What does this fold into?
Amino acid sequence: MSRFGEKLRTLRTQQGLTLQQVADAVGATNSYISKMERGQSLPTIDLALKIARFFEITVDDLADDSVEVGCPN
It folds into this structure.
């Protein structure tokens, strides 16, 4: 799950969302979302589910390092 934060940031920025918008949507703080994006924190299972649902992907997509998310550049 080492790329979780990278994937989260990719999804957020590709959709033009702020940290605060994602945080509000999933019931977290923007500082916690930021820490996850920087790899300083990992979400609880509950929060990972909320994030996945918000971005309409699976938790596996976020957690599996071999799966790419977002639109290709």
Q: What stands out?
A: The helical segments are 4-14, 19-26, 30-37, 45-54, 59-63. Residues 4-62 form a domain with the 434 Repressor (Amino-terminal Domain) fold (CATH 1.10.260.40). The chain has one domain: 4-62.
